[in-house]
Amino acid sequence: MSRREASKLVPPLPPKGSRATGRVTIIDVARLAAVSPMTVSRALKTPELVQEKSRERIMAAIAQLGYVPNQAAATLASARSQVIAVLVPSLTNAVFIETLSGIRDYLNEAGYQFLIGETGYARVKEEQLISTYLSHAPAGFLLSSSEQHEILQARPASRAIPAVRMFDLGRSNQDHSVGFSQSRAGFAVAQHLAQRGYRRIAFIAAQLDPRMLKRREGFRKGLLEAGLEAATEVLLPEPTTVDMGAQLLRRVLQARPDCDAVFCCNDDLALGALFECQRQGIAVPRQLAIAGFNDLSWAACATPSITTVITPRYDIGYKSAEMLIRQLKGESIERGRLDLGFELAVREST
Prior knowledge:
Layout: H1 3-9, H2 26-33, H3 37-45, H4 52-65, H5 71-78, E1 83-88, H6 94-110, E2 113-118, H7 123-134, E3 140-143, H8 146-153, E4 163-167, E5 177-179, H9 182-195, E6 201-205, H10 210-225, E7 232-235, H11 242-255, E8 261-264, H12 267-280, E9 289-291, E10 308-310, H13 313-328, E11 337-339, E12 343-345
Parallel strand pairs: 1-2, 1-3, 3-4, 4-5, 5-11, 6-7, 6-8, 8-9
Antiparallel strand pairs: 10-12
Helix pairs in contact: 2-3, 2-4, 6-13, 7-8, 9-10, 11-12
């Protein structure tokens, strides 16, 4: 195609100053490369269909002009998106950071990008983020709670958008979810403490989200099955910190001075409880056993090392992303409820 022929395919430049944004467009690239805008678009999406010389001119024009493709426009044109919306409660909690790493690794392999929304465990924020992401027409959602799933399903605009729930398990294979049984994990901790001979057991928790409450439910059932009295419980709704673990243990010992074991709903609280024992000269586990949850990287390095529940955080992210992309490809999924299980790491603190 000659330059004269190509010029007929390219709209004339608008009057000077008529562009509101100054953004370089595909038309600018086409004009400089002496091809049609359609050829530029084809060179970006299916370069093998464009002649080598034309492709070289297009790439040179893109480099010279600093052109950045408008992904939003491409999504509108194709009615498809390569972006996955991901909602997690916290971007500072190592549990969710590892899950995001698994999501990132699978989506990179599959050619997708993802948007991360931090909800702060707040329903209002969850509703806002879901509404915002729906306006960008994501290909799908990866959610971190059943509540987020309910919010999404209540939006008419979301009915055709697939979603996978992480960490907790749905009721059936039709409710796509990847995680493990929080209740069975709590039950396992109760069984372990009972088998070790502890009888006056406490439970401390903060950030009272649904997953934690299911752990608590399973823990209660485990104590009941072992013939033990109900645990002394101290709960706070605030986000967990190491210092809070020390604070909650002090409250337990005030209410139950003869307490001989404590199950902490996560490892941050367990570490704080351990520090408080060391401050008060309480021998762990001889005078007081401590169990945590999640097996954060330092739990095995503490002195004494902390008994805790190992959760498959990276795999939850990776497998959830895989399940979602398989839905997008129209593939059949035999196990829409994928239980990855957990493991009790028995260490020196119990």
